Amino acid sequence: MSAKVITVTSGKGGVGKTTVTANLAAALAMQGRKVVAMDADIGLRNLDVVMGLENRIVYDLVDVIEGRCRLRQAMIKDKRQPELYLIPAAQTRDKMAVSPSDMVLVCDQLREEMDYIVIDSPAGIERGFRNAIAPADQIIIVTNPEVSAVRDADRIIGLVEAEEKGPAKLLINRLKPSMVARGDMLSIEDVIDILAIDLIGVIPEDESILVASNQGLPVAMTSVNGSSASQAFRNVAQRIEGVDVPFMDLTQKDGFMERLRSWLAGES
Amino acid sequence: MSWFNKLFGEKEASGAVAKQRLQMVLIHDRSEVSPGLIEQIKDDIIRVIASRLAIDEEHVKIDLTQSGRESYLMAEIPLDTKARSRA
Lengths: 268, 87
Ligand SMILES: Nc1ncnc2c1ncn2[C@@H]1O[C@H](COP(=O)(O)OP(=O)(O)OP(=O)(O)O)[C@@H](O)[C@H]1O
Ligand SMILES: [Mg+2]
Prior knowledge:
The complex is a heterodimer of chains A (268) and B (87).
Chain A: E1 4-9, H1 17-30, E2 35-39, H2 47-51, H3 61-65, E3 76-77, E4 84-87, H4 100-111, E5 116-120, H5 127-133, E6 138-143, H6 147-163, E7 169-175, H7 177-181, H8 188-195, E8 199-204, H9 207-214, H10 228-240, H11 255-264
Parallel strand pairs in A: 1-5, 1-6, 2-4, 2-5, 6-7, 7-8
Antiparallel strand pairs in A: 3-4
Chain B: H1 3-7, H2 14-31, H3 35-50, E1 61-67, E2 70-76, H4 81-86
Antiparallel strand pairs in B: 1-2
Bound molecules: adenosine-5'-triphosphate and magnesium ion (MG).
Adenosine-5'-triphosphate binds at residues 10, 13-19, 41, 46, 123, 173-174, 203, 205-206, 209-210, 213, 229 of chain A.
C-alpha cells in the first residue's frame, strides 16, 4: 500500500482550505479508506477545531519533526470513523520550524500504512505553502467565484506548474446559484474558462457548513440526505477515487423577477 | 444583454464585468509583461521593419493574447500600400 498525498491550497486566505481538507478527509474515510488529515498551517492551527478533535491533542507535527515523540503519538484518532486520523499543527511555533524535506519525510513514513494523506496548506506563497506542496502527489486549488480569489488561484497554478507535480485540480467553493442566475457572480464555466484547469468539484455556499463546524463535525459526516454541500464533498471524494460522478446541478432561477425574465426571454 | 434588461435600464451584469477584468489582469500577471514594455517593443518593431518596408505606423498593433494557459504576442503590421503605388 502506498498513500496518495493530496494538498489543499489556495493563495488567498479564507476561501475554505481547512473546510475542504476536513471534509475531504472525512468523506474518504467514510468510503472505507485509511486517511490522515495533516495541518500544515503552523502557528495558526484550525483543522483540529473544524474536525472537533482539539481536546485530544498532546503532540503536534513539530514535536514529530523535532523528535519529541513518535509519529504514531501525534496521530489523533477520530472515533466517528474507523480509520481517520489528524496530525495537528503546532500552535506556538512558526512555519520556519518545518522544512519541505521534513514534510516529505513525515509523509513517506505514513505512506506505507495509509491510503490518503490530506494536507491543509496555509494561505500565501511562502514557506508554509512550499512545505505543504513538497510531498504532494495531487494538488487541489480552492477558489471562490470572486475576482481576487481567482486571480490568486491563477498565481498558484503557475507556481504548481513550475514544480512539475502534474496538473493541479480546481475546487470552486461558496458558489451562490441565485447570484449566478442573475449574472452577479462568476459562473463555474467562467472560472474554468479563465483558469483553464480541470475541475474536481463545486461546493455551494451552505449555512450547514458553519453549523457543522460550530459543532466540530465535518458536514460530510452529516446525514446522507442532508445539505447539498455534504453531498458535494462526498462527490469530490469519489472523483479522487477515480469514480466518474456527474457534477451536481447548481443552476437556479430564483424569485419572481428571475422567472419573469427567463420567461420573457423564452428560456423556459 | 437581453432586451428585457435594457427595457428595465439594468447595468451590465457584474459577473460579466468580473470575468472581463480578470482576463485582462491575468494576461499581464501570467506573462510578467507590463503594458509599458509592450509599447517599447512596438516602437522597436516599427523601427526595424520601417527601415526595410513602408508600413502604416499609425495602425501597428502589438497585443498579448492567451490560448488556454499559453501567452502569445500578436503583431499586426499593415503595409503602406499607397507608398508602394507611389514608388
Ligand atoms: N461553502 C461554504 N459555505 C458557507 N461557509 C463556508 C463555506 N466554505 C467555507 N465557509 C466558511 O468560511 C470560513 C473560512 O473557511 P476556512 O477556514 O476553511 O478557510 P481557509 O481557506 O482555511 O482560511 P485560512 O486561509 O485562514 O486558513 C469559515 O467560517 C467556514 O465555515
Ligand atoms: Mg485554514
